[in-house]
Amino acid sequence: MLLSLDAATVRFGERAVLDAVDLDVAEHEVVCVLGPSGSGKSTLLRVVAGLQPLASGRVLLDGLDQAGVPAHKRGVGLMFQDHQLFPQRDVAGNVAFGLRMHSAPKGEAAERVRELLELVGLPGAGTRAVSALSGGEQQRVALARALAPRPRLLMLDEPLGQLDRSLRERLVVELRELFGRLGTTVLAVTHDQGEAFALADRVVVMRDGRIAQSGTPLEVWQRPADAFVARFLGFENVVPGTVVGEAADTAWGKVPVPEGSAQGPRTLLVRPGGVRLGPAAEGLPCTVAARTFKGTHVAVHLQPEDGPRLEAACALRDAPEVGDVVGVDFDAAEIVVLG
Ligand SMILES: Nc1ncnc2c1ncn2[C@@H]1O[C@H](COP(=O)(O)OP(=O)(O)OP(=O)(O)O)[C@@H](O)[C@H]1O
């Protein structure tokens, strides 16, 4: 394992901001830590970087305990949210900064800077002033600077946080490609699930200093570990229910569940795609309370006579109007019995 956290714990006063976290990152793996504000994501990175001491537990790099190893000797690169470029240096000066710290010979450094700027899509930008760059360009310079000393582990804290949506979406694809090509091992944190899912081989969801779930983007998306993860991912149809056989009793009536689901009192996730709308006389009667255009589909918010609202995903053409009364039934394949 390139990186292992072993029961890593950080306390501020009484409160454990990291609470006995175990995490392994293999070489060449891209891991994204995802979680709400205050869940401990940045603290996790700072611990690995050697900027935050542990109350207990261990950080190992290549199997070696990093206790007492200062930040600059850990061989990890860290790129922060507000990319902190030096405004008085030009682009090349910023990129070379990472190298100068490692006392590279001058000619070699210039060649490496040229190579890095090409890599991040800014060929020939070496003499430009940092202040004259767009947000996305500054982000690329910060990335080149972090990659310059060839860190064995690259850590990114909200790497695309400040940028507008379309630029973020483009950069995330570029980053994924770049890391794949370079074989870089990456530990990134973000609160944006789209970004994490697009970038990562593995997603780690944090809650209150603990890991709520770890898995591939597909695993986490298909089978959120619990109601917290499901809600954090933006799923709204989360209800308690009692599972007996292949159905559950819920506030929305009887809901079918997949074969082999855990039995007894549980929490259910109903994906919006599994909420099917039909004539008012069939299934659970609901009134359309709102519609939200989502680009590829319409999210239809349904109010049953009793019980919480439901969200359905409808094709653009089939979406009912606000005020319509529809009958709802459920597709067992889109229902997950949560842990
Ligand atoms: N030096 C400190 N002293 C006291 N509390 C701290 C300190 N640093 C962080 N915290 C607290 O620890 C908790 C976790 O902080 P952290 O920055 O790791 O969260 P985060 O998940 O990265 O949040 P965000 O997404 O908002 O950056 C927060 O509640 C924060 O207020």
Notes on the structure:
The structure is a single chain. With 339 residues, the chain is an alpha+beta fold. It has 2 domains: 3-229, Rossmann fold; 235-338, Beta Barrel (OB fold (Dihydrolipoamide Acetyltransferase, E2P)). Helices cover 24% and strands 35% of the residues. The chain is built from 8 helices and 20 strands. It has helices at 41-49, 91-100, 106-119, 135-147, 165-182, 193-199, 217-222, 227-232, and strands at residues 3-12, 15-25, 30-34, 56-61, 64-65, 76-79, 153-157, 186-190, 202-207, 210-215, 238-244, 247-250, 253-256, 264-270, 275-278, 284-293, 298-304, 310-314, 325-330, 335-338. The strands form 4 sheets. It has a 6-stranded mixed sheet, sandwiched between helices. Strands 13-12-11-14-20 form a 5-stranded antiparallel sheet. Helix 2 (91-100) crosses helix 3 and helix 2 runs parallel beside helix 4. The longest helix is centred in the middle third of the chain and has 18 residues, at 165-182. The radius of gyration is 24 Å and the shape is elongated. The two termini are 29 Å apart. Adenosine-5'-triphosphate (ATP) is lined by residues 12, 17, 35, 37-43, 191.
Structural class by helix and strand composition? alpha+beta
Overall mean pLDDT: 92
Strand order of the largest sheet: 6-7-8-3-9-10
CATH architecture grouping of the largest domain: 3-Layer(aba) Sandwich
Overall structural domain count = 2
The total strand number stands at 20
Q: Per CATH, what is the topology of the largest domain?
A: Rossmann fold
Number of discrete helical segments: 8
Low-confidence stretches: none
Question: Oligomer, anyone?
Answer: single chain
CATH superfamily of the largest domain: P-loop containing nucleotide triphosphate hydrolases
How much strand? 25-35%
* Topology pattern, helix = H, strand = E: EEEHEEEHHHEHEHEEHHEEEEEEEEEE
Largest sheet: 6 strands, mixed
- End-to-end CA span: 29 Å
CATH C-level label of the largest domain: Alpha Beta
Each distinct ligand? adenosine-5'-triphosphate
